[in-house]
């Protein structure tokens, strides 16, 4: 680990902020297998957390013991033995990792090549034990410095617990309470790390914040916790994930993301999720059970979720908006692609509380192979949501006759002045469209990618530019082998 | 060498009950480079089937005969291979592809060709220049190129866009399937001018039409009359006029 | 069957006294139903299919099982309670018991009381009863199987066309003021090529006390058979009306329904239609108007089990202050059910504060060559339209009434033109007039 440690030291030196947090424990042993209060105390101690943090974790854990794993979603997976897992582990020692790319699934490598990912990054993504991993470290630290000068806080949440305890205490769990749902509650108890962002009043964050710039990223995967606060009149765009398929030895992922916007503030949160989906039978793929929720606390505030979901064996995810502030706006743009044996149950919730709140949902689901996909959404107009509006467009595209596409929207209105419109369609790529492309000389797989990208366009164009281009490529790659 | 040589071609299409229904019953014709052939015939004669079989549309089964294109067995090639080999079908009903800009679509098609030929992708600037020049010639507005392929296009716009694609993809054999249908006289002239501009000594064309009108503008070297899956008469351009004057019944020997 | 768990409501007072010599298949049917119901009990909002409709309130009412003795009230005329005069053949049911069979039925048509057939010719109903409906996941339907005593049986022989509509007036009556629950069971079987129009009015006798009518209707349509099923539900505010209709359609069969719901404390119209033959088609349409204290639930499942079938669901409704409406519609397209055409639309209008509507339009699709869509809207009256009418001098209240009527009439047109459609439109107007008057008085 010498070189890795060296890298970390370099970053710590540059930013002067890595005094606390998991980084210092990087060489430590893992917690014993299984989940109990001692595991949680161990995690908290490793992170040198203040008492309030440990108390919160324990409260969550005790509540979790009373909860039942949800079974209403339309996905199936073998039972998870929560006692047969490690909840805290230092990065894997190099002995267990693949020695070189030769030991990595060739399918994965093929995809990396198609996406044009440099060799070094391929090694990193595939979890190969390499030495110098961060070519972009100096870039990252430069950006970090610039951000701090402007007053933007962007750091690991474990660091924020120490440096900005008042902010963390005030907002952590304020959108997704510790008792929210089975997986979120588990996350509260055992989360290891994640991002913390605070954008001060009136500041328009001039660059896209990306986990790419945040170092020591690889090991936050399993129970990631993200908290983003946009203070009055501020704006921030946050990018999560990466188009390249990522491997992880931990099959269960249960992340929590909380967003908060004050008056006139806006958060744009974009995700490209491409966790390893497993082999063509779904074996070895990630279970991605995520709770993402934003609260538009202030008037005229806005939260916009854009997601491109192509990975994982099982996805369970409903990025939502609680529209409390008058005139606040919630948006959800989603492309979900499932191929082979993948399953996804995803959608959103728009809870309209304030006056003149607006929400817009565009969901594009593509199902191929033997995959099953469900859009599940809730639009709720509460009695005080005077003049509120929602528009939902929910389209499914089926490729092949072995897959499934399902739509389950819930629409609840208790205010006569609120308007809700929901439309959903299901179709397939028509033979005519395909032949038209073929007749212009475009090979079948490219034609499918082209047509599907057209189908997803409304969503992809909401992504930041560089992400959008990669996502387009990803759409094609994800559907390979689905026709012919 | 002939550009396209069709010999005793028989083809069937599946009817609603899934049974093969013979449509082409022994067609032979040869198109040499530089020639324009017109195929005329009443509804149901097999005109569209002929264009679909040449371009390799799924759903048609060739039950006999041969089709040779530039010395190669065309029937052995996939639809996209045929297109890359230089066969262009101007569709009677151009298909809408929502969300895919016309420009993007054309660039994808051009690059598919280049890739197959081992050439690098076209430079964005060159492509734009080429597209704008062609669009101007055909009176296609820039805004149309940004719109999704054929989505919300009027009948005339769709046909113009077909000819624009034809100009951009530089085919060796153009098959125009009832390109005149749904066009008013002004649009017809623009489209015909676009097609005529593509007449070269190397390029062959097969113009399929129901009416003689189009052939006033695109003057053919040879005219074939197709009826009930067979070519019942071939001749020079005067045959089209004769057909217009006498009607199809005269040639098919039946009320068509 | 004597040691019933007394904690399960509705069966604590004993079950229907099935005749001691009931055939074994019927006893099995009852036992199976009872077992589903005792296992699941009254559905609560925790059950997905009942997410927005709670039956918990039923526990508080001291219901007794209807004894079959109630008749129409003295001088009672089912015509007056129903849609109004029409040219239909008339059948009256009181608390689910058949009160007489029309004379001069055309050949090939048999109309009988279920109780009568079970007692005398059980073999006539055996091939159908309990075989069309799958009640394993429907606790209330299962309870019906356990407790059913009577109902209407309509058998139309292959090729027979019943020209005149058959109008069934179901009256609930509680002459002694005792809260009653009853479990009517109807069976409609149309042979190949048969055709009929069935009109159903579900109403209450004046002054009725609390009642629960928990009906199940089984419908089997043979090849190319056509059934037009028109329903008018206008129960009293004391009535809970749960209706589960299960239909299976053979090749080329058509099942068209129109349901107008305007009265009752809690009404649930649940329909499950299985398209089992190519070319089968169903149109499930309806309208509702719910006011204070009323809860109307429409739950539809259309199951495309084979290729080339068509379905269409269109419901429109208005909800006034204190009213609550639920629409749950589902289209299932099974694997291999290619070339399915399935559509669904629900439009609701909230007329006032404190009105609620819950919509869940669902698609569950396992075949790719399909055209399926759904749409749902919730909102208020179009204010531009309202202004337009007022600008032409029409008073606001009249303008509102006009627009509400126009909104609902649009879907009432699903009823074939003629006296029946007029009768349905008449009910909408009467509802609107009452509402108008109330608004007038209170404002």
UniProtKB/TrEMBL annotation, chain A:
One of its GO terms (biological process) is iron-sulfur cluster assembly. Residues 135-204 form the SUF system FeS cluster assembly SufBD N-terminal domain. SUPFAM superfamilies: Stabilizer of iron transporter SufD (SSF101960). It holds the Pfam family SUFBD_core. InterPro entries: Fe-S_cluster_assembly_SufBD, SUF_FeS_clus_asmbl_SufB, SUF_FeS_clus_asmbl_SufBD_core, SUF_FeS_clus_asmbl_SufBD_sf, SufBD_N. Residues 213-455 form the SUF system FeS cluster assembly SufBD core domain. It comes from the Bacteria. Coiled coil: none annotated. Belongs to the iron-sulfur cluster assembly SufBD family. This is Fe-S cluster assembly protein SufB. The gene is sufB.
TrEMBL record, chain B:
This is Fe-S cluster assembly ATPase SufC. SUPFAM superfamilies: P-loop containing nucleoside triphosphate hydrolases. The keyword Nucleotide-binding applies. Residues 4-253 form the ABC transporter domain. Belongs to the ABC transporter superfamily. Ycf16 family. It comes from Roseospira navarrensis. InterPro entries: ABC_transporter-like_ATP-bd, ABC_transporter-like_CS, FeS-cluster_ATPase_SufC, P-loop_NTPase. One of its GO terms (molecular function) is ATP binding. PANTHER family: ABC TRANSPORTER I FAMILY MEMBER 6, CHLOROPLASTIC. Pfam families: ABC_tran. Signal peptide: none annotated. It comes from the Bacteria. Keywords: ATP-binding, Nucleotide-binding.
């Amino acid at each position: 680990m010498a070189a890795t440690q060296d890298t970390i030291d370099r970053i710590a030196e540059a930013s002067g902020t890595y005094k606390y947090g998991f980084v210092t424990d990087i060489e430590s042993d893992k917690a014993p297998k299984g989940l109990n209060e001692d595991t949680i105390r161990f995690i908290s101690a490793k992170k040198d957390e203040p008492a309030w943090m440990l108390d919160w974790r324990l409260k969550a854990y005790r509540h979790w013991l009373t909860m039942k794993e949800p079974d209403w979603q339309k996905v199936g997976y073998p039972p998870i033995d929560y006692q047969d897992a490690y909840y805290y582990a230092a990065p894997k020692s190099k002995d267990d990792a693949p020695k070189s790319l030769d030991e990595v699934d060739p399918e994965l490598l093929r995809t990396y090549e198609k996406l044009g990912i440099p060799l070094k990054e391929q090694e990193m993504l595939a979890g190969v034990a390499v030495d110098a991993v961060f070519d972009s470290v100096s870039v990252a630290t430069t950006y970090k410095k610039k951000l701090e000068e402007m007053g933007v806080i962007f750091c690991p949440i474990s660091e924020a617990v120490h440096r900005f305890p008042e902010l963390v205490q005030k907002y952590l769990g304020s959108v997704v309470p510790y008792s929210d749902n089975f997986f979120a509650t588990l996350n509260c108890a055992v989360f290891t790390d994640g991002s913390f962002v605070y954008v001060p009043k009136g500041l328009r964050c001039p660059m896209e914040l990306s986990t790419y710039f945040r170092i020591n990223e690889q090991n936050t995967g399993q129970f990631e916790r993200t908290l983003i606060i946009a203070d009055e009149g501020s704006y921030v765009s946050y990018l999560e994930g990466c188009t390249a398929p990522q491997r992880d030895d931990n099959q269960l992922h249960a992340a929590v993301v909380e967003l908060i916007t004050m008056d006139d503030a806006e958060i744009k949160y974009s995700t490209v999720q491409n966790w390893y989906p497993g082999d063509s039978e779904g074996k070895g793929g990630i279970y991605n059970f995520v709770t993402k929720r934003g609260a538009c606390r202030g008037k005229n505030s806005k939260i916009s979720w854009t997601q491109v979901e192509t990975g994982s064996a099982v996805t369970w995810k409903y990025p939502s908006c609680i529209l409390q502030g008058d005139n606040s706006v919630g948006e959800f743009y989603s492309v979900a692609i499932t191929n082979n044996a993948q399953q996804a149950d995803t959608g959103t919730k728009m809870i309209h509380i304030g006056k003149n709140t607006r929400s817009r949902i565009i969901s594009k689901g593509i199902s191929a192979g033997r995959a099953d996909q469900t859009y599940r959404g809730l639009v709720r107009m509460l009695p005080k949501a005077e003049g509120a509006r929602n528009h939902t467009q929910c389209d499914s595209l089926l490729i092949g006759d072995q897959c499934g596409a399902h739509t389950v929207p819930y629409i609840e209105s208790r205010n006569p002045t609120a308007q809700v419109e929901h439309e959903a369609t299901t179709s397939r790529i028509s033979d005519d469209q395909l032949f038209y492309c073929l007749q212009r000389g475009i090979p079948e797989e490219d034609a499918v990618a082209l047509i599907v990208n057209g189908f997803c366009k409304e969503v992809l164009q909401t992504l930041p530019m560089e992400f959008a281009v990669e996502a387009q490529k990803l759409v094609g790659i994800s559907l390979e082998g689905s026709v012919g | 060498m002939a550009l396209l040589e069709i010999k005793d071609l028989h083809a069937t299409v599946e009817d609603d009950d899934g049974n093969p229904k013979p449509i082409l019953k022994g067609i032979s014709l040869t198109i040499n480079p530089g020639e324009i052939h017109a195929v005329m015939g009443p509804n149901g004669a097999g005109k569209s089937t002929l264009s679909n079989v040449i371009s390799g549309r799924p759903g048609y089964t060739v039950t006999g005969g041969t089709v040779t294109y530039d010395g190669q067995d065309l029937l052995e090639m996939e639809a996209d291979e045929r297109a890359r080999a230089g066969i262009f079908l101007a569709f009677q009903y151009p298909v809408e592809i929502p969300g895919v800009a016309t420009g993007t679509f054309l660039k994808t098609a051009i690059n598919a060709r280049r890739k197959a030929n081992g050439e690098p992708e076209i430079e964005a600037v060159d492509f734009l220049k080429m597209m704008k020049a062609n669009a101007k010639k055909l009176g296609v507005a820039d805004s149309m190129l940004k719109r999704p392929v054929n989505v919300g296009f009027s009948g005339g716009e769709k046909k113009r866009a077909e000819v624009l694609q034809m100009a951009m993809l530089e085919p060796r054999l153009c098959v125009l399937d009832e390109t005149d249908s749904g066009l008013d006289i002004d649009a017809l002239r623009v489209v015909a001018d676009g097609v005529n501009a593509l007449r070269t000594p190397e390029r062959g064309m097969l113009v399929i039409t129901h009416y003689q009108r189009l052939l006033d503008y695109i003057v053919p070297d040879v005219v074939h009359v197709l009826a009930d899956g067979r070519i019942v008469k071939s001749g020079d351009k005067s045959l089209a006029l004769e057909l217009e004057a006498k009607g199809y019944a005269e040639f098919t020997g039946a009320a068509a | 069957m004597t040691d019933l768990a007394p904690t399960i409501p509705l069966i604590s007072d004993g079950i229907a006294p099935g005749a001691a010599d009931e055939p074994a298949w019927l006893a099995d049917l009852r036992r199976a139903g009872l077992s589903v119901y005792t296992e699941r009990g009254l559905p609560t909002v925790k059950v997905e299919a009942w997410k927005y409709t709670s039956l918990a309130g039923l526990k508080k009412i001291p219901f007794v099982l209807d004894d079959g003795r109630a008749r129409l009230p003295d001088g009672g005329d089912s015509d007056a309670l129903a849609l109004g005069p029409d040219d239909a053949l008339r059948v009256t049911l009181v608390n689910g018991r058949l009160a007489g069979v029309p004379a001069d039925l055309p050949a090939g048509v048999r109309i009988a009381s279920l109780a009568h057939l079970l007692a005398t010719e059980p073999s006539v109903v055996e091939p159908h009863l309990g075989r069309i409906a799958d009640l394993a996941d429907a606790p209330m339907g299962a309870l019906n199987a356990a407790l059913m005593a009577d109902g209407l049986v309509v058998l139309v022989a292959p090729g027979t066309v019943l020209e005149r509509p058959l109008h069934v007036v179901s009256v609930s009556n509680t002459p002694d003021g005792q809260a009653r629950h009853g479990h009517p069971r109807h069976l409609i079987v149309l042979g190949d090529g048969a055709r009929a129009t069935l009109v159903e009015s579900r109403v209450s006798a004046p002054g009725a006390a609390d009642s629960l009518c928990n009906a199940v209707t089984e419908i089997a349509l043979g090849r190319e058979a056509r059934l037009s099923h028109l329903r008018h539900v206008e129960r009293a505010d004391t009535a809970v009306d749960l209706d589960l209709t299960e239909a299976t359609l053979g090749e080329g069969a058509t099942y068209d329904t129109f349901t107008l719901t305007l009265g009752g404390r809690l009404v649930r119209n649940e329909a499950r239609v299985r398209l089992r033959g190519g070319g089968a088609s169903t149109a499930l349409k309806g309208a509702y108007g719910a006011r204070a204290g009323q809860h109307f639930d429409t739950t539809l499942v259309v199951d495309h089990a084979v290729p080339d079938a068509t379905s269409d669901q269109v419901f429109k409704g208005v909800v006034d202050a204190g009213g609550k409406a639920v629409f749950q519609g589902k289209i299932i397209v099974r694997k291999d059910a290619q070339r399915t055409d399935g559509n669904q639309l629900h439009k609701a209008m909230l007329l006032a504060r404190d009105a609620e509507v819950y919509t869940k339009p669902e698609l569950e699709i396992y075949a790719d060559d399909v055209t399926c869509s759904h749409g749902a809207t919730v909102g208020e009256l179009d204010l531009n339209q309202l202004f337009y009418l007022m600008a032409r001098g029409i008073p606001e209240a009249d303008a509102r009434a006009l627009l509400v009527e126009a909104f609902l009439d649009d879907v009432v047109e699903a009823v074939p033109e003629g006296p029946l459609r007029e009768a349905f439109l008449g009910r909408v107007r009467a509802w609107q007039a009452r509402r108008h008057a109330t608004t007038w008085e209170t404002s």
